[in-house]
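To whoever is on call:

I kicked off a structure prediction for a single chain this morning and the downstream step that reads the tokens threw a length-mismatch warning. I double-checked the sequence; it's 178 residues and nothing unusual in it as far as I can see. Pasting both halves so you can look.
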Amino acid sequence: MPSYHMISTTFADLHDTPQRMAAKGVIQEILDWTTAREYFYWKVRRRILETAVERKLKHANDKLNHGQMMSMLRRWFIESKGPVQSYLWDDNPAVVSWLTNPEEVQSIEDNIKIIERDALIQKIDSLASLQEGLSLEAVVSLLQKMNARQQVEVKKLLESTGDPEDKLDPEDKLAAET
């Protein structure tokens, strides 16, 4: 009986070795015990900073999922560092340094504002498509809330898109005139 116990214990231990777990893809890498504390310090610090950015992205556009947000963050990192240094994405201290650099933080905030703006525009578009005539009422309401300079800019923009009556059918022109 003791020999069976020893064999079964050895067999069970073989399933929990770092080499076996790495081979199965359960862990990414095998850590050296002497550097494990430093590794986890940088890993946790990176995850805290990434989670803070994810929270801001989720607030900007609640339709984004975790994978999309991490792809954006990685793309911004590579755009900042350049494609030659894209390998640094796997280096936790490098990413922490990037996420705490004031210039990069400002760049990330600017990107988040763009995402928030795009999400609001999509929301307005979807609301305007729900009911016919709502778009015109929304434009009028927005124009009333704009200052004079903004109203002039909108007028120039509308004039540059062409006369809407030029695009109307003859019957629609007649209806618009009456």
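Update from on-call: the warning came from a stale cache, not from the record. Cleared it. Sanity check on the structure: The chain has a mean pLDDT of 86.
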